[in-house]
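1st attempt posting a full record on here, be nice pls
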Amino acid sequence: SLLLLGLAPYPKIIKEKHTRMADTTVMKVSSKSSPKGHLGQKYLAVGKGISMRLWDKEPVQEGEESSRDYETVGYVVSGKAELHIEGQMVLLAEGDSWLVPKGAKHRYKITEEFTAVEATHPPAEFKGRDEK
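the predicted structure (as tokens):
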């Protein structure tokens, strides 16, 4: 018996019915006409708590170290880069994905023309988060 082993049975889960309406906002953004940030990123779809951006055919270059007030996940569409983060180096190539935690010191070194999609939480383009 579970009680003899000192393990209590799982508690009952009570499901509550919520009548709150779902957010039905739908957004489509074309990268061809989307706004650009000062670093060359194209801002794509944006929600209340997350946004997407595109780095399209970025040339070989080495960026400066920065720390951002948002979390970033990314996916490499094509090309190669190095992500230098908190004393580590991660090689990024087509098909790879990565995470940069909020506040982590990092920089990118693009070693081959690079295209990637990133999502940021909270949205990078609000409150000047991308400008710092």
